[in-house]
Every structure is written in C-alpha cells, then in structure tokens.
Design a protein that fits this description.
With about 425 residues, this protein is α+β, with helices and mostly antiparallel strands. Helices cover about 30% and strands about 30% of the residues. The protein is built from nine helices and 16 strands. Helix 1 packs across helix 9 and helix 4 runs parallel beside helix 5. The longest helix has about 30 residues.
Length: about 425
C-alpha cells in the first residue's frame, strides 16, 4: 500500500513562504465547544410531546456525532503528526466522506470503520445526524459563506443498491451522477474535478490526478467544503509590516505581520496563550493556541487531547488584547490510504472488503482516499476550501501514489470553527512563515 504522501504549494506576500502544519487533532472535527447554540431540550420537556422528544434526541445525536468526529480527529493526527512537515486539511470533509462510505459497508469492514470513526449510535441515527449537520452548515448566514456539498459518480451500467443511493441522497444530499469509467476514465476524472473546482470557488484544483481513476473504477464519493469570512474586526492594512518571527534553532526571520488591538477572547494558562478571533456574524471563529517560546512544539502537542483542549477553551474570556498574526496562503494535498489502515480501517482496502450494502458485486474495494485543502489569511479575513475523494473499484484497480518531501517547524496551532455546531472545519499549525 502507499505511504501517506504530501504535496504542498506555498505562497506569501513579498515572496515569502508560509509553512503551516495541521493542528494537533485536538482541534479536529466534532468538538462541542464554547457557545454551543444548538437548542437543547430541558428535563421538563422530555415527556411533553413526541416532537420535543424527537428534537431532543436529534440534538443529542449531533453532540454524539461531534464527539465521535473529535476522537477520530485525534487519532488521525497521531498518525499524520508523527512526521515532521507541513499539513493543512479539513477534518470535517474527511469524516463526512468516510461516513458516506460507511453506509455501504458490512461485516468486518463495517466493524473496523465503526471503531475508526468511534460510532456508538445505531446506523440510521448516525447517518441522520450527518444529514442534520450538513443542513446546519449549509444554513444561510450573514457575515460569512459556508458551503458543504456531497456527490457520487457511478459507472453507468453498474448495479448499486437502491437504498444506499436513496440514503446518500436524502441524508447527505449526495446525488448520483452516471459516467463511463470503463470507456473513458479520463473524461470522468475531468468531470469530477470540474465539479470540485466549481464547488470550492476555483480553490481546489485537480483533486484526482491523472491516473487516479481507470477502467476498474466503479464509484467515486466526494465531499467538498468552502468557507470565506471577513473578520468581525479587520486588521488595518496600514498596520501590517515586516516583523520578527521566531522559528526553530533560535532563528529569527522577517515576515508580514498583521497587527490589531481590541477586545477578544483570551486566556493565559501556564505555558499557553489562547486567542479567539471572531469572524463577522460571530458564528465562526479562528482559535489560536500559542505555546510559550520555551516549549518546543513536539512537547506541547503531547499535552493536546480533547479533554484538555475543552478545559483550556472554557477559560477564554473577553480581554483587551494586542494581536500580531502573520499573513499566509498555501495549499496541500495528500493520500490517506495508509493512515486509515494504521488506524484500523484495513479490510476496506483489500480484496476482502465487504461493500455489499453498496452493491451485490463481491469484488469491490477502496483503492484510494485523497484530500486537498487551501487557506488564505489576510487583513480582511479568511478563505479556506477542501475536498475529499474516495475511489471504489473492482480488485484490479491500482492505488494512486504521490510523493514529495518537505520539513517545517513550530510555533502555533489554529483552527476555524463553526460555532453553532462546534464542528472544526479546518485546522493548522503555523511553523515558519517565510
């Protein structure tokens, strides 16, 4: 099987390069964090009416789904974060795509994915909760743009289970498009990539590289997510100037640093500072976790887990704060095939995969899982996008491999969070903004 591979393209004002590594996935999908705005039923309402009972159960399932996604995110980071280098990705996109795949599994394959995704509720409630989350994220809001889209592309003459396609359409809003991988896989690849490009406002290009799909491909599942928001309080452009930024090995470099003073969510906890920068509308925010300069990132990340981060975030309070934050822009791409196998999702990638709730065909398996992400942070706000693709083929299908090597370093973690659900949409670590 392929190793986890990463390709990154980095750009920054004044031709400086930004190196951003993903936040220790304490910041991953599914936190129910501060300011949770999903209405919760009161104890008195538990027996008042079927509608209230149903609403209470739905809210509880959303919380449970978020917690499961959170734990999956930590597990994912334990694998990805063990190697040095820059990473940026959307845990929300990856978990949603895998849940769509999970709907088609059975037997040991299903058991493995249940464990990897930390699913503890019945299948129907898990998929319904995912559907509710998609609807919540796609609810129109003022101040920011957020779009989550799911899509399927299947071989035109291949037989898929009707209830599988119906559930993905109804729960995940993932319609099926018919293509002909057998006769022209390249045309199908271009069509899928064009949809991703359009859905992410031209930010995610070539999700599937040439050769990723071939005549053995039978189904492609894709999740795409796009986010754009202005800061609630923009950074004045006139205050941006080249300032020192401390990197590893006692080095100091000059980078374009944005500066702003105002009342923001802040906490100082031992050797850690936390900052919450709201976007317009206050439904989304960027949270920065900055360890003391005397603490190396590896030591800090060893402390990071879901329980600890939740405790840290509870201590954030409004405080007049002088903020200095680098501008940065970059994108990344990688293959999750080996990572997911290391987490325990092994059978799905073999000729013993049980995808019989997807199709009666007995030789289907997952050939690859690919992901790409983009982020830009400047004085006005943030733009971010990501897409995850899962390729299902018959057992002769090859696994795609890409490779590029790079290294980076410290010094702060950050995430972009959807406050009403607590879902972390994107996560990262800024190491060396050159």
């Amino acid at each position: 099987m392929t190793a986890v591979n990463h390709v990154q393209t980095v750009s920054i004002k004044h031709q400086r390069y930004v190196h951003l590594q993903v936040v220790a996935m304490a910041l991953l999908t599914g936190w129910i964090l501060l300011n949770m705005t999903i209405p919760l039923a009161t104890p008195q309402s538990f027996s008042t009416s079927p509608n209230q009972e149903s609403e209470r159960n739905a809210n509880n399932d959303l919380k449970q789904l978020a917690q499961a996604n959170n734990q999956f995110g930590f597990d994912l980071y334990k694998e990805l974060g063990s190697q040095k280098g820059n990473l940026f990705y959307s845990p929300a996109s990856i978990s949603t795509a895998l849940s769509m795949l999970f709907r088609g599994t059975d037997g040991e394959t299903k058991q493995e994915m249940t464990g990897v995704l930390h699913i503890e509720m019945p299948d129907d409630r898990h998929h319904q909760a995912n559907g509710e989350l998609v609807q919540l994220l796609n609810t129109p809001s003022t101040g920011f743009e957020l779009k989550v889209a799911n899509r399927l592309w299947g071989q035109k003459d291949f037989v898929f289970m009707g209830d599988y396609l119906e559930d993905l359409q109804n729960q995940y809003q993932a319609p099926m498009g018919l293509v002909d991988f057998e006769s022209d896989a390249e045309a199908a690849r271009e069509q899928i990539n064009a949809w991703v490009l359009d859905t992410t406002k031209n930010r995610i290009q070539e999700l599937f590289p040439r050769g990723a799909l071939d005549d053995a491909t039978r189904l492609v599942l894709v999740n795409a997510i796009y986010f754009k928001a202005d800061w609630a309080t923009p950074f004045p452009k006139t205050a941006t100037k080249d300032e020192p930024f401390h990197v590893a090995n006692q080095q100091k470099i000059q980078v374009p640093m944005m500066n702003l003073e105002g009342k923001f969510g802040y906490a100082q906890i031992d050797d850690l500072q936390l900052l919450s920068l709201p976007y317009a509308g206050d439904e989304t925010s960027m949270i920065v976790l900055l360890p003391d300069e005397s603490i190396d990132m590896e030591t800090f990340e060893a402390k990071v887990n879901s329980e600890q981060v939740a405790k840290w975030l509870e201590q954030i309070r409004p405080k007049q704060t002088k903020v200095a934050l680098p501008k940065f822009t970059f994108d990344s791409e990688f293959v999750l095939t080996d990572t997911l196998q290391s987490l325990g999702m092994k059978r799905a990638f073999t000729d013993r995969a049980e995808l019989n709730r997807m199709s009666t065909h007995d030789s289907l398996y997952v050939s690859t899982v690919v992901h790409k992400a983009f982020i830009e942070v400047n004085e006005e706000g943030t733009e971010a996008a990501a897409a995850t693709g899962i390729v299902v083929g018959i057992t002769s299908a090859p696994v795609v491999e890409q490779a590029v090597e790079f290294r980076a370093d410290r010094p702060f973690l950050f995430m972009i969070r959807h406050n009403p659900s607590g879902l972390v949409l994107f996560a990262g670590r800024l190491d060396d903004p050159r």
